[in-house]
Specification:
GO terms for molecular function: DNA binding. It holds the Pfam family ParB_N. One of its GO terms (cellular component) is chromosome. InterPro entries: Chromosome_partition/occlusion, ParB/RepB/Spo0J, ParB/Sulfiredoxin_sf, ParB_N. This is Putative ParB-like partition protein. The protein is α/β, with parallel strands linked by helices. It folds into three domains: 180 residues, Conserved hypothetical protein from pyrococcus furiosus pfu- 392566-001, ParB domain (Alpha-Beta Complex), CATH 3.90.1530; 47 residues, no CATH class; 45 residues. Helix content is 57%, strand content 9%. It has a five-stranded mixed β-sheet with strand order 1-5-3-4-2. Strand 3 and strand 4 form a beta hairpin. Helix 1 packs parallel to helix 7 and helix 10 runs antiparallel to helix 11. It starts with 7 loop residues before the first helix and ends with a helix.
Length: 297
């Protein structure tokens, strides 16, 4: 297999160093920079900045200053903000002329990784931002677009032998970041990327991601709204499970359970040959009936 264009291991080593994420923002690289000399990076994952939130941050900056320096790199065009564009915008609203910044020499791939890593070490990080940052790290490790990452991770979880180099890059990248492994990320927090937008917005606002996963399973917006209201009132994860409306019929519940089970490869691999034969016959019969109905219509 050809070597990937991006080496996640080497890049994270260069960014984080032996001590981990702290080396990304070491004190000896701290500078005070003129806000007018800075331009945003094209690698910024956040594309919109709510005016109300910016003004709230600007008010905080007027009172307390910029508590977390931004991350900047030098480019032929000048100084580029790798991470911290929101703080930069808010600082200007607050009337500041300079802003504290860590200055690093980074290429484009390193800048994209650094933006993700810097987001991961923010104190105010919400679960959705964490997942998006880790997805970016995985995309760089696998050298694929971000919108293909989760599908690729699911494939590697089932068949790691298809791309051992990719698995090794992921293991090292997530290991250098600390915390969960990429397999756990895929099974747990990574699932919030598939949530409806109204539930994602609630996560951005502070909703626990475990509650969000329960609410996101509701079939329609009205039901999700009801569950979100319960969550705002303090409902636990179990209470949200209990509050969900049951399937209309036992038949509907059975259909959902069968469809879910047929999509679980590892479950199917555990059944006996005799059971497998029965399943194959039932699936074939169901397929025949559905084809007949489809052709009749």
């Amino acid at each position: 297999m050809a070597k990937r264009k991006f080496d996640a291991t080497a890049t994270l080593d260069a960014l984080l160093g032996p001590a981990g994420a702290g080396n990304l923002v070491s004190q000896d690289q701290l500078r005070m920079l003129d806000v007018r000399q800075l331009t945003p990076t094209p690698h910024q994952p956040r594309t919109t900045f709510t005016e109300g939130n910016l003004r709230e941050l600007a008010d905080s900056i007027r009172e307390n200053g910029v508590l977390q320096p931004i991350l900047v790199r030098t480019t032929p065009a000048g100084l580029e903000i790798v991470a911290g564009e929101r703080r930069w915008r808010a600082a200007q609203l607050a009337g500041l002329t300079t802003i504290p910044a860590y200055v690093r020499d980074l290429d484009d791939q390193q800048a994209a990784a650094a933006s993700a890593v810097e987001n991961l070490i923010r104190e105010d990080l919400n679960p959705l931002e964490e997942v998006e940052a880790k997805r970016r790290i995985a995309a760089l490790a696998l050298d694929i677009p971000e919108d293909q990452v989760m599908t690729r991770l699911r494939r590697l979880l089932d068949k790691p032998e298809e791309d051992p180099d990719g698995v090794r890059e992921l293991d090292t990248a997530f290991g250098r970041l600390g915390g969960e492994k990429w397999q756990s990320f895929l099974r747990n927090k990574g699932r919030i990327l598939n949530l409806p937008e109204d539930v994602k917005e609630a996560v951005r606002g502070g909703l626990d991601y475990r509650k969000a996963l329960v609410i996101g399973g509701a079939g329609d917006a009205e039901e999700r709204g009801r569950l979100l209201a319960l969550a705002r009132d303090g409902a636990t994860v179990q209470a949200l499970h209990d509050a969900q409306k049951p399937p209309h019929t036992q038949r509907e519940a059975q259909i959902k359970a069968v469809a879910r089970a047929l999509g679980q490869k590892r479950l199917l691999e555990r059944i006996s040959p005799r059971q497998q034969s029965r399943v194959d016959k039932l699936v074939a019969e169901l397929h025949r009936i559905l084809v007949e109905v489809d052709e009749a219509n």
